[in-house]
Amino acid sequence: MKTKKIPTRTCVVTKEKYPKQELIRVVRTKDGNIIVDETGKANGHGAYLKKDVDVILKAKKTKCLNRILNVEIEDSIYEEIINKIN
User: How far apart are CA 82 and CA 84, in angstroms?
Assistant: First the structure.
């Protein structure tokens, strides 16, 4: 019997691979808006972050999401991510 494949994605901060359920996706839509995608299916350019407050704060400090998504990320987005994790 075949085992079911578990999709993995790479955290943009730690560069480690995790199952998709252990990560949170941040998406830049075609309009240039930034949304936190809980379903993992929103259209747009996405980046994955580990569901860990330290990782989120490091992403904010290093501005790695700004570089990856090519847009300025507001502090409210980071706060929203942290609230959804807790």
Answer: 5
